[in-house]
Amino acid sequence: MGESNARTTLPASSKAVFAAAGSPYFSTVLTLMGAVVILSNIGASKGVTLGPLVTDGGFFLFPLAYILGDVISEVYGLKAARRSIITTFVLAFFAVACFWIMIQLPAADFYDGQEALERTLGPIWQIVVASAAGFLIGQLANSWVLVKLKERTGERGLAARLIGSSGVGELLDTIIFCAIAAPVIGIADAPTFINYVVVGFLYKTAVEIIFVPVTSLVIRWFKKREPGYGQLAAGRG
Known about the structure:
Blueprint: H1 2-8, H2 24-43, E1 47-50, E2 53-56, H3 62-76, H4 78-104, H5 114-121, H6 124-153, H7 158-181, H8 190-210, H9 212-225, H10 229-236
Antiparallel strand pairs: 1-2
């Protein structure tokens, strides 16, 4: 059944092979992506300075979402990638609604953390809007570039398409996200904002490039275990 599903999603003129998105492996990656995005949204409400660099508390998590997105795009294709992006941000907005309810619930007399809770989770909806806008455009661009390159090269050139697609996606993502999120974390002047954008883009892109060997190994692991993928790839080779 998995092989049949994979065949139906493969254009006759394309060199690309994609696995069916109904497998439990896809569900695992999708779950991890949702958790990473929700946690990075919480962390992003905190402004962080590391020496001369300006970033936010979610800086170390967000690149992982793009790496997971690369896995989905490369193994399962553009349609599955779009589905994962939409699902992830439905979960993110659900988390925001839950945070709002937590804040609005009347505090017990012995609870002294209401102000800290409001300050930490109160601005999250703005971060989610920034993240949703940036990640939606950035991830779609990333997935589109990666899949189009794969349709031209097949299984060859994995590292090149991971790096190329990441650069395009991260640039769009960072500009959009920083423009919306900067006021939330207290960035009010142009030099600091430029620092925030440049550092964010360079950091996220560098992390993805550094992790290309790991991402490639993970992708190959998934390809070997998805029903029918190996046979289809051999047939297209």
